[in-house]
Amino acid sequence: MKQINVTKTYLPSIDEYSKYLEGIWDRGQLTNNGKLLLELEDKLKKFLGVKHLLLINNGTIALQIAIRALELKNEIITTPFSYAATTTSIVWENCVPVFADIDERNLCINPDEIRRKISPRTSAILATHVYGNPCNIEEIKTIANENNLKIIYDAAHAFGVNYNGKSVLNYGDASILSFHATKLFHTIEGGAIVTDNDELAYKISYLRNFGHNGPEAFHSYGTNGKASEFNAAMGLCVLPKVPELIQARKIISQLYDTLLKDSGLEKPDLRTNTEYNYSYYPLLFKTETELLVVRDRLNCENIFPRRYFYPSLNTLNYTGNQPMPIAENIASRVMCLPLYHSLSEDEARKIVSIIKG
Ligand SMILES: *Cc1c(COP(=O)(O)O)cnc(C)c1O
Question: pTM of the predicted model, to two decimals?
Answer without folding.
Answer: 0.97
